Amino acid sequence: MLRPKYKRILLKLSGEVFGGQKKYGIDLETLNIVAQEIKSVKELKTDVAIVVGGGNIFRGVSGAIHGIDRATGDYMGMLATVINSLALQDALEKLGVPSRVQTAIPMQSVAEPFIRRRAIRHMEKGRVIILAAGTGNPYFSTDTTAALRAAELDVDVVLKATKVGGVYDKDPVHFSDAKKFNKISHMELIQKRLKVMDSTAASLCMDNKIPIIVLNLMKKGNIKSAVEGKKVGTLVEDGEC
User: Fold this and answer.
1) Which CATH superfamily includes the segment(s) 8-236?
2) How far is 129 from 57, CA to CA, in rounded Å?
3) Comparing C-alpha atoms, which of 128, 148, 16, 11 is closest to residue 77?
4) pLDDT (tens digit, 9 = 90+) per residue, 210-229?
């Protein structure tokens, strides 16, 4: 077995991934595929933390457009991430992968509160930790949560799992001539306003020297290949690009 390049990773999953083709609700077939991919990484003895979004159930920004107070909408979105996290935990444990859900908003009946030292201890014991409810504060995205938790948990890399194969100069879904970057710096990501990750999240990763790999989640084996150090998707890292 190859020794993984990264011993501890943070995987960022968008809520839309959970919705499958419909993008809304939870698609159980897609959920199982995601769980299988995570299991393959755990077989490398890599520590795994996961931050999930809630856009398949509710998105605070879109709610604000339709008249819901932005802060209220963001709290609703945080609760949506808890639903996704519990679903992912169930899928993982059915595959024999022990996991724990930790939330930024206390709700002891369904999950543990996020405690940094406890989260690290869970990973040391081989458990996947699923981090729900964002930062617990409105106006912060789950991308920012991923960057914050990555710094707190001293991970080696953030894997941003999407439905496209990396970072492009424009949306590849709508533009056939979109150019893919194999490598790009954090600063370029911010300056070019590439929408794969918000500027607050990118800045946090830059300041803490945490590389980001943007990859296609639905391509089988992509996450495992990235953890092993193979060239997958787009690497966001300081230095020459």
Assistant:
1) Acetylglutamate kinase-like (3.40.1160.10)
2) 21
3) 16
4) 999 999 998 999 999 999 99
